[in-house]
Amino acid sequence: MKARECSLLIFGLTVASVLDSACEQRDLDVVELWSGVEAIVSAAKAAGLTAMPFDKFRISGVTDTDNPDATEDILLEAGFRRALSLVLRLRPGGLLWMAPVCSSWIFLNLTCTKRTKVGGPRFGGNLRYLPVRQGNLMAEMAAFFFLVAVSRGVHAVIENPASSMMFNYVIFANACCLWPKRFWAILPHCRFSTAPYGSRFGKKFKLMSSHAWVLQLACKCLCPGRKHKCLATVKTVGGKRTVTGVKQALKDSAAYPAKMGVAIIQAWMNKDRPEKEKDPQPRAKPRAKNSGPRSGVTPRLQSKVRVSKRQGAGGCGKRHQAEKTWASLDLNDSVASSSSSSRATAKRFPSWQALDIDDSVDPCEPVAPAGMKLPADRTAKMWRCLDLDESDAPPESQQNSHRWKSLSLDE
């Protein structure tokens, strides 16, 4: 697998070396790294799943220390190895959710981060600035975990704000490209918030997933007037425009609403749900009564016939070897009445929806209906079903024929 070719080296470990020495203990359904308020873990546990969170600030005075036996500071080697051990414990088909710290990847701090497309590695930023170095390392760790997870049959998702430059960081992007198929979805915070309209955050989360089920989560803002709680203030001093983030609002908007965690777990749990069987002959979409084509538009006649040839049974003549089995006949003679401005008498014709014919009768043993003599050079057909829909026909008061809904014939 191409994931083994990843050149990332973190604390002396490569993706290949981790995969070669991975343990066989796989007892977790969900792992959430950089878990914050643990919305996803809480939803998973409520669904009866085994889930584990991981975050530096999860337990004050315990996980935020440098104690190698308890720390969850992923920037420390002990913290990184603890996070890696959780990833390796995920069952095949399990969920790995990651939300690396985004503070150095958004536009609000560009003055210090200097993240641009030019000047060193793409979007690598000012390496003399500590948050940039930490942000780069966490992005590389996320890519590392992503490749380890997908190589072991785990579904992995990486989340960051829609405006984050992390997804374009050259080292991160090149590593993730080793997994051939990635799926993207954007969902706004406000769709899952329970706050009153106008007091919700308009922040948009961008998801990169290894599997397509994440597309179920994609949605758009429905707030009236697109009014949201401000995440930043704008000031103009001396003709210079300055944008400053509201610290508490940014922190609150980064926390997943409980409803979002539930939606994520439900979407992931539906990943193996089989698709509904498609109707082999779907009915045409019903048209409104007394509806006709627009003036000046010529009605079209559409017909589709699918024919599959089958060779005749052994010992039959050549004339039987080219017999055809009519699998389906689909006609739509939607000829409507002339426009109201026309003087011609209004005419309506039935719409033929479906005609199923099965002439899978042994050509060597033709069967004729009672009282009918079968020609010597033809075989009988078994008429299974004839569906007619005269929804465009005139009212019964103006017609003498009946409306045929279904006609089943078996000769």
Q: What features would you highlight for this structure?
A:
single chain; about 400 residues; alpha/beta; Rossmann fold; 2 domains; 6-stranded mixed beta sheet; 3-stranded antiparallel beta sheet; about 20% helix; about 20% strand; globular
How would you describe this structure to a colleague?
The protein has 411 residues and is of the alpha/beta class. It has two domains: 271 residues, Rossmann fold (3-Layer(aba) Sandwich), CATH 3.40.50; 91 residues, no CATH class. It has nine helices and 13 strands. The strands form four sheets. It has a six-stranded mixed beta sheet with strand order 2-1-3-4-6-5, with helices on both faces. Helix 3 runs parallel beside helix 5 and helix 5 runs parallel beside helix 6. The longest helix has 22 residues. The radius of gyration is 33 Å and the shape is globular. About 28% of the residues have low confidence.
